[in-house]
């Protein structure tokens, strides 16, 4: 199957799910997707509405889903420590910012530092998986357990705040630009991934290792390095997502920052049509999956569903989506479709 054919086939379920969500909301409330131009507290014109909330609210999840897709494709497993790693990266970011005046150079230095720390922890997870042959979910359980405690220690147990115009620009709106900045950050991350996959052998090597590690090794691919690299890339995505959330809130709370986002990231990868056992992958599918999860959450809140029950409703819908997109269902659907096509009379027979 060619790469383009693979992408189109695996995008059917997520695009269908997104289409059904749109149709449901249009029938439930025709004004659900209406977008308004308002003036915010800073006196700038900004776009507002459920559609903007979905695009903006899913930013951190979409960024992490990109990295989670690479890890899943290369290792056939998932990283459950991304939320804790984001807490560590965010704490490092805030720690450096509080050491001086919040200016663009200091923000850049803090960002690079938190990226380095997150990638280091990613390399640690990758080493456990690649060198010690530990299952990814078990290997990342270490950081999942200890990560938020490390973030607590970095800032001395406090919940420090950061402020400044540039922090507001990164987490909110740039003056004169009505679209939230996190949306642009997602686009930039997606573009960088697309360039990396196009001009390097990252896609080929990752899929080769995920499909058959033994064959990949015999063909000269350093499978341990590819697996470790996938976790390092995920670490970079985690750092970006952590910085976006800190700038959005203007503070770091090690206990709640991106809490449970690892589960949503894994679901985004699955909903996007990617096999959780590894191999071929679609980054577009994972990003669409992230927006589906956010759209579903926004829809439930718009329907006045209590926050305590939102996860239950999300679980029911996600079970249906994952089941429909499962290999077993796809197999029987292909058989049924083949029989249906054979039963159709040909034009010659009709004539």
Structure notes:
- It is a single chain.
- The protein is mainly alpha-helical and 351 residues long.
- 71% of the residues lie in helices and 2% in strands.
- It has 18 helices and two strands.
- The chain has helices at residues 3-10, 12-28, 50-57, 59-75, 82-97, 104-130, 136-139, 141-154, 165-171, 181-199, 202-211, 213-218, 223-249, 261-271, 283-302, 307-324, 327-343, 347-350, and strands spanning 36-39, 45-48.
- It is globular and about 75 Å long.
- The model has no long low-confidence stretch (mean pLDDT 91).
Task: Looking at this protein, list some descriptive labels.
two-stranded antiparallel ribbon; globular; single chain; 351 residues; mainly alpha; 18 helices; ABC transporter involved in vitamin B12 uptake, BtuC; 71% helix
List the topology elements.
Layout: H1 3-10, H2 12-28, E1 36-39, E2 45-48, H3 50-57, H4 59-75, H5 82-97, H6 104-130, H7 136-139, H8 141-154, H9 165-171, H10 181-199, H11 202-211, H12 213-218, H13 223-249, H14 261-271, H15 283-302, H16 307-324, H17 327-343, H18 347-350
Antiparallel strand pairs: 1-2
């Amino acid at each position: 199957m060619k790469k383009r054919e693979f992408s189109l086939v695996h995008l059917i379920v997520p695009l269908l799910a997104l289409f059904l969500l749109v149709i449901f909301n249009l029938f439930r409330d025709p004004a659900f997707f209406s977008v308004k131009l308002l003036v915010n507290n800073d006196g700038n014109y900004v776009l507002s509405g459920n559609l903007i909330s979905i695009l903006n609210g899913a930013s951190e999840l979409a960024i992490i889903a990109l990295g989670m897709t690479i890890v899943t494709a290369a290792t056939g497993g998932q990283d459950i420590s991304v939320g804790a790693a984001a807490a560590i990266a965010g704490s490092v970011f805030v720690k450096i910012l509080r050491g001086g005046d919040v200016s663009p150079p200091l923000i850049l230095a803090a960002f690079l530092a938190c990226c380095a720390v997150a990638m280091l922890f990613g390399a640690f997870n990758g080493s456990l998986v690649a060198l010690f042959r530990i299952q990814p979910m078990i290997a990342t359980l270490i950081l999942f357990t200890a990560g938020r405690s490390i973030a607590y220690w970095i800032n001395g147990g406090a919940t420090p705040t950061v402020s400044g115009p540039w922090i507001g620009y990164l987490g909110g709106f740039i003056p004169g630009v009505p679209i939230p900045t996190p949306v642009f950050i997602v686009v930039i991350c997606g573009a960088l991934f697309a360039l990396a996959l196009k001009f390097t052998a990252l896609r080929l090597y990752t899929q080769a290792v995920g499909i058959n590690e033994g064959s990949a090794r015999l063909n000269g691919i350093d499978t341990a390095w590819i697996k470790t690299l996938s976790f390092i890339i995920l670490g970079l995505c985690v750092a970006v997502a952590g910085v976006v959330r800190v700038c959005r809130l203007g503070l770091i709370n090690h206990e709640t920052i991106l809490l449970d986002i690892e589960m949503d990231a894994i679901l985004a990868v699955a909903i996007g049509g990617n096999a959780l056992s590894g191999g071929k992958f679609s980054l577009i599918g994972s990003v669409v999956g992230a927006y589906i999860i956010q759209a579903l959450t926004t829809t439930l809140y718009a329907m006045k569903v209590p926050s305590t029950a939102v996860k239950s409703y999300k679980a029911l819908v996600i079970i249906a989506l994952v089941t429909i997109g499962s290999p077993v269902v796809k197999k029987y659907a292909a058989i049924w479709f083949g029989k249906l096509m054979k039963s159709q009379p040909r034009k010659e027979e009709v004539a």
